[in-house]
Amino acid sequence: MLHILVTNDDGIDSKGIHALVHELRSFARVTVIAPDRQQSAVGHALTVADPLRATPFHRDGELFGFAVSGTPADCVKLGLTTLMSEKPDLVVSGINHGANTAVNVVYSGTVSAATEGMIMGVPSIAVSLCNFDPDADCTAAAHFAGIIVRHALDLNIPTGSILNVNVPALPREEIQGIKFVPLSRGYWDDRYDVRSDPMQRTYYWIHGTYHVPAGEHESDDGALADGYVAVTPIKFELTDRPTLASLASRFNELQNGAGANPR
Question: What is the pTM of this model?
Answer without folding.
Answer: 0.92
